[in-house]
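Researcher: Hi, I'm a grad student and pretty new to this. My advisor asked me to get structures for two proteins we've been looking at. I'm not sure of the right format, so I'll just paste the first sequence and hope you can take it from there.
Model: That works fine. Here's the first sequence with its structure tokens right after it:
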Amino acid sequence: MTDTRTQLSMDPGAFAVSPELAAQTFTELSRLQDTVGEMVREARALGRTVPLGGGYAGEIGDFMATYGVSGPGSAAESLIRFGQELQKLKDNIQQALRRYQATDSDAAGGVDCHGG
């Protein structure tokens, strides 16, 4: 019996996407990033202390202020980190598209369409 080994000729973590789909994904990520920016502004508005009085209502006002902008895990902090992750995705898409275009241009330079 023969011991046969196969090896991938590409990075197993890589995947292929059409340039059109990548551009559409980039656009959708940009729209999502805009929405996240609006949510950050709204979360910061939560951070304003609202005079709701004392007792339970006062506790709710304090909670909303803390949850909105201050402390680890606040809405604003979490949304800002999410927006940064979206930007990393967009940067990776742009880099992949540049590589695709460079490879496509290099391949086109080697194609000879003469003679049939």
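Researcher: Oh nice, that was easy. Here's the second one.
Model: And its structure:
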Amino acid sequence: MENIVSGLSILFSVQSIIFLVLGLLVGFVVGALPGFSSSNAVAVMLPLTIGLDLEAALIFMASIYAGAQFAGAVPAILINAPGTMGAAATALDGYPMAQKGKAAIAIGIARTASSLGGVIGAIIVLLLITPMSTIALKFGALEMFLVALFGLTLIATIVGDNIRKGAISATIGLLIAAMSADPALAQGRFTLGFIELYDSVPFVPILIGLFAVTEMIFLSKKTSLVTQNINHGKTSFKDVIEGIKETLKYPKDIVRAALIGTGIGMIPGVGTATSNFISYGIAKKSSKNKDFFGKGAPEGIIASEACDSAVTSGTMIPTLTLGVPGSATAAIMLAAFYLNGIRPGPQIMVDQAPEAYAIILAIGLASILILPIGILLATPMVSITRVPPYFLVPIILLLCVVGAFAVGNSVFNIGLMFLFGIIGVIMRINDYPVVPLVLALILGPIAEGNFVRAYMLSQGEISYFFGSTIALVLWAIIVVSLFSGLIKKGFQRLKGR
């Protein structure tokens, strides 16, 4: 309880509140840009936190994350152009409702569901993070190696049916991560003569390149951000209030969606798009009005939006307690923690508990502020989609250059950023997913370093790798994760007979 109070005192300082609101506004702006996701926003803004106080930097990044996740629903509802991947499920019922002239009601439903889902998710995480970290404290080198290995097996979940390309993307990430010096012998491996690659591969410039620069290259070919006219953009405050009242008629749907979002958010690599569609599917299955889904059902918007915000909180559990990111955006948040002196992992609730609680509380407070600020800015956020790409692209690229250089004051990082921007373009053109590469880039060094330490402790005894209860449980989870697809197909075949 003392740490939570310390977290609250960090959060409710004047500086923290200013950066929280500022982060929300940045997230709102970026989330309203179709295709420019929360991971892009966090990647661009990450280096700009250098020089800020630790608490302000972390709260700023957390609120950008929360704000961008929320904002994607506005263009999804009004112009059927989801600002984020998670908002795609919102568009299924939000846009049909807007076509019926109920755009403001749909926005009111989305705002309220998003706000309540985020608050419920943050409360669940506050309750779970201490027991989770207590378990994590029992993790040694062997257990951390198995956790990283488990994270790598989840790449199969991320890539869906395109397993071959996902595996290639992950392999590239592992090879890039292995370019730096050997963790045991400190010998350079594939640094190409660049001293900047010796200690570790610069993570932040790679992220900025893969997400933001790649997106800007594709955006530069467009004449506008959206292909449709904004003909459902008028919103009235009265109708938004009506939407809020409508949402409160479905308390079970809100709680269920928030539980689904928080639970799935704890699983590294699944992401909001998957969780939102799972929540949407369960809501449709449970509804008495199944036929109304896809035609403007309030339950459909609630299922997507409450889940979307809850995922943001859920991803913080594996990210903070194990150092394994729960999503692409959480991976960049992980980089933000390292950049600002926070070392996520089993010791975080011992060494930096107030900061960890402040981050979670910031997400909860941001979820509360989403409702009033989101309602006020709904129409201006849609206007952002009218900004011409030829104006937007140079500004964001300039921010990218400044950000990449700020990490270590190195021109090398700028070149690395543009190199990975081009690699990102090539991957997208050829339909290779980027997220497996990012996860492999993060988890590869964790897996390698802990494997080397575990092997040295084992003194060559293979039985050491199966010598603890936690290790056996993790091995079982890894096996299930690896063969879950085959097991699922087997059940489907049995059902078909």
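Researcher: Is there anything I should tell my advisor about the second?
Model: You could mention this: The mean pLDDT is 79.
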